Amino acid sequence: AAEKIRLIPQDFFAELCEQIIQHLNHKIPGIDTAELCQRIQTSGVDINVDDLAKIANTLSFLFSTAARNNLSTEELITTLGSGISTLPKHAVQVIRHVWNEQGKAIAVSEDARDMATVGQFVDMKWKLGVAMSSDTCRSLKYPYVTVTLTVADPSGQITDKSFEMSIPQFKNFFRQFKEMASVLETV
């Protein structure tokens, strides 16, 4: 990860660290590595989404472990310095600054994070479509609903999950949501 971190400009690395801290503090649901990666690539850096996601996971683990162990800024930096592969100087400076400014806030909320082992729902989009025909069937006229769920996994990576449903399936899906809403109103 240290070699890939060297590629990332300091301002983007700082933004990634800030987003991770915000995620650990439950202020944002996750880190949109695809969007950040696109902006880094636009700036001329050759990095892919998978590498950026690995860096985000590593930093998330670093910050959450430091919070769990209640490390001071100097203890964290000393620990980083004793690692097998050394981080670039700009990365250590950013980590020092972010941890010094916002690290103590995660120590308080880290207990709540330990309980969150499932993803977090971020957004849902849907659209209605009609299949008119196919190469095997001339006249389908089959309506369907496409649903896209945006979910942040426990490490903070945001992903989209899409699926299609027939109209009867969608009606059942909708009925279940209404049932959940009525139960939530009683809580």
From TrEMBL:
<dbReference type="InterPro" id="IPR047155">
    <property type="entry name" value="COMMD4/6/7/8"/>
</dbReference>
<comment type="similarity">
    <text>Belongs to the COMM domain-containing protein 6 family.</text>
</comment>
<feature type="domain" description="COMM">
    <location>
        <begin position="120"/>
        <end position="187"/>
    </location>
</feature>
<comment type="function">
    <text>Scaffold protein in the commander complex that is essential for endosomal recycling of transmembrane cargos; the commander complex is composed of the CCC subcomplex and the retriever subcomplex. May modulate activity of cullin-RING E3 ubiquitin ligase (CRL) complexes. Down-regulates activation of NF-kappa-B. Inhibits TNF-induced NFKB1 activation.</text>
</comment>
<dbReference type="InterPro" id="IPR017920">
    <property type="entry name" value="COMM"/>
</dbReference>
<dbReference type="Pfam" id="PF07258">
    <property type="entry name" value="COMM_domain"/>
</dbReference>
<protein>
    <recommendedName>
        <fullName>COMM domain-containing protein 6</fullName>
    </recommendedName>
</protein>
<dbReference type="GO" id="GO:0051059">
    <property type="term" value="F:NF-kappaB binding"/>
</dbReference>
